[in-house]
Design goal:
The protein has 178 residues and is an alpha/beta fold. It contains seven helices and seven strands, in the order E-E-E-H-H-E-H-H-H-E-E-H-E-H. It has helices at 33-45, 51-60, 69-75, 82-93, 108-111, 141-147, 160-177, and strands spanning 6-7, 24-25, 29-30, 66-67, 121-125, 131-135, 153-157. Strand 6, helix 6 (141-147) and strand 7 form a beta-alpha-beta unit.
């Protein structure tokens, strides 16, 4: 079984549709297979992603041959339960829910170069100079720390819908400033 074939054999869980045998879902191969595969396994182990959710997202994406976990997660914004996603970010990765994550014009300066590859996006500067960063990839927080100059970064638990909207705003402003 290849590393990127999604299965629940590892955790011993099975899908109700599989009649007791572990369900094997073949899905896209990730471009960054090591990092994406590890986070995907964590999301499955923590029950954020289940076989039926993975299949629905893969189908909605048109079953691409390859892609990124970032695109996969954002495509699943309407399918992945918000409570599970937010709880996972907060409990497992120490993020905080500061309220609804939305584009603010002050983020225009950060967006000039387009969205960073880890897709952890700053969206608000606090009065003390700290920056709120909406987290999509908690496994890449170190990259994010090195990218944004601020006295402190606060990790914001954003829903996937909020992340999708924020990324779209980033791309729009990057095109306008480029």
């Amino acid at each position: 079984m290849s590393f990127l074939e999604t299965s629940f054999k590892r955790s011993g869980r099975s899908s109700p549709k599989s009649n007791g045998s572990p369900l094997l879902l073949i899905m896209m191969h990730f471009i960054d297979s090591l990092a994406d595969g590890e986070l995907l396994a964590e999301l499955k182990d923590d029950s954020v992603l289940a076989p039926d959710i993975i299949a629905r997202i893969d189908e909605a994406m048109g079953r691409p041959e390859s892609g990124t976990l970032n695109d996969f997660l954002l495509a699943g914004a309407d399918v992945i339960p918000e409570r599970s996603w937010l709880s996972w970010l907060i409990r497992r990765h120490g993020c905080h829910r500061f309220g609804r994550v939305a584009w603010h014009d002050e983020a225009t300066g950060w967006a000039r170069g387009g969205a960073p590859p880890e897709h952890n996006l700053p969206y608000r500067r606090c009065a003390d100079g700290a920056v709120l960063v909406a987290v999509l990839r908690p496994d890449r927080l170190r990259l994010t720390v090195g990218r944004w100059q601020a006295p402190r970064l606060h990790w914001a638990a954003a829903t996937l819908r909020e992340m999708r909207t924020l990324r779209s705003a980033w791309e729009k402003h990057a095109l306008q400033s480029g």
